[in-house]
Amino acid sequence: MSRIDVRKTYKLYIGGAFPRSESGHSYEVADSKGKFVANAALASRKDARDAVVAARKAFAGWSGRTAYNRAQILYRVAEVMEDRRPQFVQATQQSEGLSAGKADKVVDEAIDRLVWYAGWADKVTQVVGNANPVGGPFFNLSTPEPTGVVAVLAPQASSLLGLVSVVAPAIVTGNTVVVVSSYERPLPAVTFSEVLATSDVPGGVVNILTGSAATIAPWLAAHMDVNAIDLTGVAGETALATELEVAAADNLKRVRRAPATEPDWTLDPGLEPITAFLEIKTVWHPIGV
Q1: From 3.60.15.10, 2.60.120.560, 3.40.605.10, 3.20.20.370, which CATH number describes the 26-286 domain?
Q2: Helix, strand, or coil (residue 192)
């Protein structure tokens, strides 16, 4: 007797929970050959607003943790990903049309990138902060601090390695994020959210919305409680990127501009993805008083 397929409908990830989209809408996700794989929640404006509220609520606690503790938590995410490797390999194969061997390599690189950023958590202050020489009897110290709530438009093509490469550097320094996943390739992001929920990442630190960046991003760019936005996910879409930059200017958001083409995520990312969402606080203190 043949069975009827149990088709999956994936939900959003907001505040550590998996709610359905407020709109009640979903969309079909196909593999690289056009075959139906699952349904994904179609995030709405209300979902984006709820995600920002969750991110803001989580910011004080996350940014207040020690850098070493954030490193431990990112490393734990890498550990759980390693445990769930077959699921990530399958999702990457389906989404990006890769062979099993190439998908396995992508998963390796994504896990290694998490470990790499975890290692920077308690070192970045020494690299980008400093004691400044000043003319006068003062200590003058510059220290990096997290920007706040960051909206992240994840890459459209690199649905796993690209996703990790834009999320990890934002949260490792204490920011919280609202992520819009790849529209056509959301399955690795959904699987990643399940890892976050079962590791030590506090609810609200990472919030993942599935749906169209063209629809959701304008609300995030204009949201007055979002402090920064990463436009990597609209690479090559000049008109949309410009529209989002204009909207972001209303509350002087930090903007990581959209590249002309999606980057090669296998290259050494350097520190720019981390420093893009840091503020530098400089403190003067009199000497001998």
Answers
A1: 3.40.605.10
A2: helix
